[in-house]
Specification:
single chain; 470 residues; alpha/beta; 5-stranded antiparallel sheet; 12 helices; 25% helix
Length: 470
């Protein structure tokens, strides 16, 4: 399917990963991967090939086990626009329709990539290629607007040392990735926008740092990016890095969701599959895992038997290890981005700014009425722990409510003793905004630094008005 160099186990591993195995309660255990992941607000998905949808064993397993689908090749540039200006969505739509008819969500993969470009695109350069990329993003996203959970907007744009890959897209200018994300957001405000790459699982690796610095820069400047995908193609003996969870947490701390997008493991190592799953479970903003294929025979690495089902469709030991980890996870909050679902009442959450990656915080852990809330580095303390009640309140310390001091633009947002009034009621919306029931205005911050105060302001859909409860 593609040519790439994956890190060998001796290079990728920096120590044994110590996954804390939590055994599920037998009375609560789900019997499929998707259902088990859903218990903690996550998904467990697979890559689907349109050409295999006529295989009854293949579709039976996929339809039963998974709740998210990625098209294996059918939504890549060469498949969707084989001739310039002439789009062909037939195979992509076949997968989309198959998935959604079964209640599954769909991730789009991928809009801008140096590989699997149609021949006509490969023959372009400079401003002509830049314009072709923009037109492709607009055309594809117009077709799928409002339908998908996420798009891998840009795929594999970095070298192993953390520098930019010297591709034809890179030759159009260093800002091409930013242009792709801004074009994608304008084309579909409702879908999560992701950067996706391989060999970024080891926190100390140069490529990981290169991608991290890109996302940090984008978040600091308000470039729209909602998630990062780690492909997680593990090869050889023990290639699960000992710092894998640190990598996931570090990306998440930037204010993006983290997803494992193309998982496969040489010989389906039970310890590696359990370890990567546990690492995701341990990071609240790791929202899902996708394995790259259904059975070993369906894999692009078929000779390595890297998936959770054997060639006959039987569950392997690695399947059971993953299911046990998923069932052992406690209820987890959702992380609503542009297309996420609002969090449900109950449980203490951080309120994390999408633009800043910082938490809504009560300064000095004050419990005084009228203390205005601010942004501050997330620290897990009680003054950053908010509980959403069934009465639409956001409470802190158990008895203080998030309170609007007025209803107009610029009104201060503070804490106050809970009184059940409308100025203490909040709608946590699917697009990531939090709006006052009384005012209809959004929680808003003007900056991204520590100490930036939170206020009400007319909703504009920008990142400084999007928050996640995590």
């Amino acid at each position: 399917m593609r040519a790439r160099t994956l890190l060998a186990g001796a290079v990728a591993a920096v120590g044994a990963f110590s996954a804390v195995m939590v055994m599920p309660d037998a009375n609560a255990a789900a019997s499929t991967l998707g259902a088990a992941a859903q218990q903690s607000g996550r998904y467990f998905g697979t890559a689907i090939a349109a050409g295999r949808l006529g295989d009854a064993t293949y579709t039976s397993i996929a339809g039963r086990e998974f709740n998210m689908v990625t098209a294996e090749n059918e939504m890549k540039p060469d498949a969707l626009q084989p001739q310039r200006g002439r789009f062909n969505f037939s195979s992509g739509d076949q997968i989309y329709n198959w998935a959604t008819q079964r209640g599954m969500k769909v991730r789009g993969h991928t809009l801008a990539w140096h590989a699997q470009q149609p021949d006509w695109m490969r023959n372009l350069g400079g401003s002509s290629l830049r314009q072709a990329m923009i037109e492709h993003i607009n055309g594809v996203m117009a077709h799928y607007r409002g339908k998908l959970a996420a798009w891998d907007v840009v795929n594999e744009a970095f070298e192993e040392n953390g520098s930019r890959r010297q591709s034809n897209l890179q030759s159009t200018g260093n800002d091409w990735i930013e242009v792709a994300f801004r074009t994608a957001r304008a084309a579909d405000p409702s879908v999560k926008l992701c950067y996706n790459d391989y060999n970024i699982e080891n926190w100390s690796y140069g490529k990981t740092q290169g991608v991290y610095n890109l996302i940090r820069d984008f978040k600091s400047r308000g470039v729209p990016i909602d998630c990062v995908g780690l492909q997680t193609h593990f090869t050889g003996g023990s290639s699960l890095p000992g710092n894998f969870q640190q990598t996931l947490s570090s990306f998440a701390a930037l204010g993006v969701d983290v997803t494992l997008t193309e998982v496969d493991v040489t010989n389906s190592s039970t310890s590696q599959y359990a370890g990567l799953t546990q690492a995701c479970i341990n990071v609240p903003r790791c929202i899902g895992i996708t394995v790259w294929g259904v059975r070993d025979s369906d894999s692009w690495r078929a000779s390595e038997n890297p998936l959770l089902f054997d060639r006959s469709g039987n569950k392997k030991a690695a399947y059971t290890s993953v299911l046990n980890v998923l069932n052992g996870a406690g209820p987890g909050p959702s992380s609503p981005g542009p297309s996420g679902s609002p969090s449900t009442p109950g449980g203490a959450n951080r309120i994390v700014g999408a633009q800043s990656g910082r938490c809504v915080d009560v300064p000095g852990a004050s419990q005084n009425n009228g203390t205005r809330v601010q942004l501050y580095d997330c620290n897990g303390q009680a003054n950053q722990a908010w509980t959403r009640t069934s009465g639409k309140q956001l409470t802190v310390y158990g008895s203080k409510c998030l309170d609007a001091a007025g209803s107009g633009n610029g009104s201060a947002v503070q804490i106050y003793s809970c009184n059940g009034q409308a100025n203490q009621q909040w709608n946590v919306n699917a697009n990531g905004t939090i709006t006052g029931v009384q005012s209809g205005r959004c929680l808003d911050v003007w900056g991204t630094g520590n100490g930036q105060q939170v206020q009400l302001y007319d909703c504009g859909g920008q990142a400084n008005q999007r928050f996640s409860l995590s």
